[in-house]
Amino acid sequence: MDYLQAALSEALRLYPSVPLDHKEVVEDDIFPDGTILKKGTKVIYAIYSMGRTEAIWGKDCRDYKPERWLRSSDGRFMSEPAYKFTAFNGGPRLCLGKDFAYYQMKFVAASIIYRYHVKVVEHHPVEPKLALTMYMKHGLKVTLQRRDHADRQKLINSIGD
Ligand code: HEM
User: Fold this and answer.
1) Which one, 67, 90, 92, 93, has least CB within 10 Å?
2) Residue 40 belongs to a domain with what CATH number?
3) How confident is the model at residue 158 (pLDDT cuts 50, 70, 90)?
4) Residue 135: which domain range?
């Protein structure tokens, strides 16, 4: 489950469901870098871009690497600060459904992987469609091959290896 949590977090880093978010300044303020913010100013922050910024995620920021979320010593999942991994917003308005969303994603992924071998159709174009929430422009075409009982049992036995 640690690896699945890491894989889902890595997918949300590169393809956040909410790609852009905006806030309104409630009273005059100054950002740590000196930017002056007047009351009423609208601030847009690009969650999509932040997930692909080298200064935040390092040289391999464009690569899909679930391992970056796993502690090298024991492979356990390590969360990142909400102001670094902003897919769920941060601070007092952090997504209220974050834990529930992970639970749902893991449940769906585990249920499918338990029953089927999933293979993405070769050369299928995978492109994001930017909107208020992000979609896949052409959906995701996959082939499913049902696992037989012995295969499912093997999968169960391998958990924790
Ligand atoms: C992968 C799934 C999800 C992502 C990426 C996500 C992301 C976000 C983001 C970015 C915000 C902040 C929006 C803003 O700035 O106003 C937010 C707020 C919120 N989300 Fe989610 N969300 C997810 C799933 C869910 C689910 C499943 C629920 C409920 C069961 C939920 C409930 C909420 C609520 C109630 C807020 C408003 C919190 C507040 O303003 O205090 N979210 N979410």
Assistant:
1) 92
2) 1.10.630.10
3) confident
4) 2-158
